[in-house]
Amino acid sequence: MMQKFQTFGPIYREKLGMYESVNIIDPEDAAILFKSEGRYPKRLMIPSWQAYRDFRNKAYGVLLKTGESWRHDRMILNKEAMSLKVIDNFVPLLNEVGEDFIKRVHMQIKKSGQGRWTADLTNELFRFALESVCNVLYGTRLGLLEDFIDPEAQRFIDAVTVMFHTTSPMLYLPPSLLRRINAKIWLDHVQAWDIIFMQADKCIQKIYRDLRLNQKSTGEYLGILPSLLVQDKLPIEDIKASVTEMMAGGVDTTSITLQWAMFELARAPSIQEQLRTEIITAETAAQGDLLKTLRSVPLVKATIKEAIRLHPVAVSVQRYTTQELILQNYFIPAKTLVQVGIYAMGRDPKYFVRPEQFNPERWLNDDPTHFRGLGFGFGPRQCLGRRIAELEMALFLIHILKNFKIETKRGVDIGTTFDLILVPDKPIYLTLWPLDSHP
Length: 439
Ligand code: HCD
Prior knowledge:
By secondary structure, this protein is an alpha+beta fold. The chain has helices at residues 2-8, 27-35, 47-56, 67-81, 84-87, 90-112, 122-138, 151-167, 175-180, 184-213, 224-231, 236-249, 252-266, 269-286, 290-295, 298-310, 342-346, 386-403, and strands spanning 11-16, 19-24, 117-120, 317-320, 325-327, 330-332, 337-340, 404-407, 416-419, 421-424, 429-434. The termini are far apart.
């Protein structure tokens, strides 16, 4: 996309397999597109995800639903996963997982006997992310940061990776064809989803049973699923479908973003120092009130935004237009697929000064950053896990920076590859030094 925007300018048309789309890069155009979106914003559908559910006779969750049925479920789920009223409840749940991750790093450092720990953190972070999202969804710990890891949970993590990996080659082929010829890629895809649904179902059933046994309500926050079950506003099949999507969607996404964030910070020791100062100051002022601390760490939040600018999870955000639009003097008919190339936007000097530079502070200045932070999408169809992800990542960074200095080998270039989501093209090795003993 970057090359094509270079060649054709800020808007071009493209046909890829069965998709015809208009691709845009300018934040102003993105603003027009999103402001014109109707009651039922529609994004590009992933055919194999739908095909799996049709094939296995499973309900769609909000990720795949459209129209009034999407809107109905989404409104209910927003209250449980996005509303200001409820997200404070996530903080203690995510914080304990963050603290356990730190304990685990200290243990690894001790085990190494070298006073530091150097590793590719991919797997550790996958477990951290699954442990985090499950604690918010179910209010239960899986124990993925302990020495013995439940092989079932590990299977779930691997299945999500396989599911993403097998999706991209099928993006441009009709699933019905792949199914008919029993293509290996389709079979692998089905198997991955089977594992995902089976594991999620086990977690959900357990909560369902426990909740019926203990009808007493203590007023204590128990997690998203218990809250949905108690309310009884959604049929159980719809709850299951959306909770499964959130559980699967919360593993690779946040863990890879955190990996990128730590990589960028490793190459910017002065930003690490700035962040530490901000965190310590905020904590002192908040006197142990974590919610208060989180409200006074703008640079931590900007660091996450900046990591997502350079390394978004999704290459584009897409919408089908509901009405005619004019962008860059081009006429776009209704029902056209429009893609905002957010990866390309994040790296274009037209929209970000010195885009190659990792500079969280750019988000703090009052220069117009309108419609430039689209990593979670926009509006009512934006990422449902956004608030969970943001809190999970902020708490993680706070704990890591307070406890360790992050380093990486100089001069190692890490690129990005497309695996449906964007991922590093080689392992990222990071070194963590305990702060008090680092020279
Ligand atoms: C992939 O050309 C590239 O949060 C395609 C367009 C496209 C459409 C939808 C995007 C997808 C891309 C990337 C992964 C996304 C997905 C929508 C939701 C999904 C961004 C950009 C994700 C990772 C949640 C996945 C949940 C699932 C595991 C149940």
